[in-house]
Every structure is written in C-alpha cells, then in structure tokens.
Amino acid sequence: MVNQSTAAGGQQDAEHEPRFWYGLIAFATFMLALEGAFHIVGGFVALFEEDSYVVGERELMVTVDYTWWGIAHMALGVVMFLAAYALFWGKTWGRIVAVVVAMASAIANLAFLAANPVWFGLMIALDVLVIYAVTTHGGKEREF
C-alpha cells in the first residue's frame, strides 16, 4: 500500500526540480552579465587609471602593460554579456560559452590578482559560482 503523503511528496519534489534548475540558470545569467560589466569597468580603469592598482605592471603574475590588460578585460566583458544573453534564451551553446568564458575570466583574474586582491578574489569566486550553476543540472531543460 502506497502512502499518499509520500506519493504527494515525491510529486512535489519532481515539480520543485525544474524551478531549482531554472533558478540556477537565472542566477548564472545575472552573474555573467554583472561580471561582464565589472570586466568592462576594470578594463577602463586599467586603461585610464593605472595608479589605482596596488602593484605596478612588473609585479603581476604575467608581465604585460596595463593597457593590454584593459583591452583583454573589456573583450572578456563583452563575451560575458553575449554568453549571458544566450544563456537567458536557453541556448545550449550559451551554456558551453558561459563555462568557457567563466574559466577564462577566473584565469585572467588570477593573473591580475596582485593588482587588487580583494576585488579580483571576489571575481574568481563569482566565476566558480557561475560554472557550478551552469553545469549542475545540464540537460534538464530537454525533459520539460
């Protein structure tokens, strides 16, 4: 004999699963767009306000001029916006691009970590959360 409260609870969990997954994708979409904006702002800061960073160009993990870092951050920000747009509309390639661009962002922020440890450390944490949110329940949207 099946307990009706168990059967109803199982149905409730099954209905809760898609909402949770869509919530993670919405979170990842918002975080990607926000990080894209942060990268663009960070790129402008690297281009025009080099004095605001803690260390000089020679103390970074990768010795490159702040101008080049600024351009790289701005390009990464634009790609993050495009990935967020694709993720918002449920495109499979958007999930792939979101993971790849979040990994690239984490690596770029790691290389730039000495310039502003708190800011770029938070950016790395956001990248990890985006990767988790996008990869946790991959393929679930096809079931519904």
Mean pLDDT across residues = 79
Total beta-strand segments: 0
Tally of DSSP helical segments:
4
Beta-strand fraction estimate: under 5%
- Please, how many domains? 1
As a percent range, the share of helical residues equals over 70%
What distance lies between the first and last C-alpha atoms, to the nearest angstrom?
30 Å
Q: Main sheet, how many strands, which sense, barrel? A: none
Order of helices and strands: HHHH
What general form does the structure show? elongated
Poorly predicted parts: none
C-alpha Rg, in Å? Answer: 19 Å
Helical/strand content category = mainly alpha
Structure description:
The protein is mainly α and 144 residues long. It has one domain. Helices cover 74% and strands 0% of the residues. It contains four helices and no strands. It is elongated and about 50 Å long. The chain starts with a helix and ends in a 9-residue tail after the last helix.
